[in-house]
Specification:
This protein is of the alpha+beta class. It is built from 5 helices and 5 strands.
Amino acid sequence: MVHPAVVTDAQVKARYDSVVASLGDLEYKMRTMQLPDDATANGALAKLKVGQTFDELAKQLSRSPDRVNGGDLGWVGFRTPLLEGHRQGLPLPLAQAITKLPPGNISASPIVVGKDRFQVMVEAARATQIPPLDQARPQIRR
C-alpha cells in the first residue's frame, strides 16, 4: 500500500543543476594501484620503468577492488580547487596527484594515503562530458 512520492520536473532540474555545478572542467581516465607498503610500491614503480604494464601490475599487486580491471577507474572529474565532497570518493592526496599528472604519465613516487601507498597513471584527459537534461532526466528521476 506504500506508493513512492512523485518526483517533479522542478526536483529533477534542481538535482541536474547541482550535479553539473559539482563537476570540474576536465575528466581524467586513470588507473590506480593500492599497495600495502613502500617496498611494494617502489618495486611496482621499478617494474613500470622497465616496461611492465600498469594493468598487469595492478592485477598482481593492488589491494583495491578495481584490480580485476587492471586498476581502471574510468573517467572521473573533479571540481577545482579540490573540496571536501567533490573528489568522487577518492582521498585528497590521490585526487591532487591526478589533477597534476599529465596524460600518459605515471606518478613519479608512491602517493601516501594513511597506511596505503598508491601509484596512479593518467591515461587521458578531456573536457567534462555533460549530457543534456532531457537525456539525463530518466536516470535522475529514478
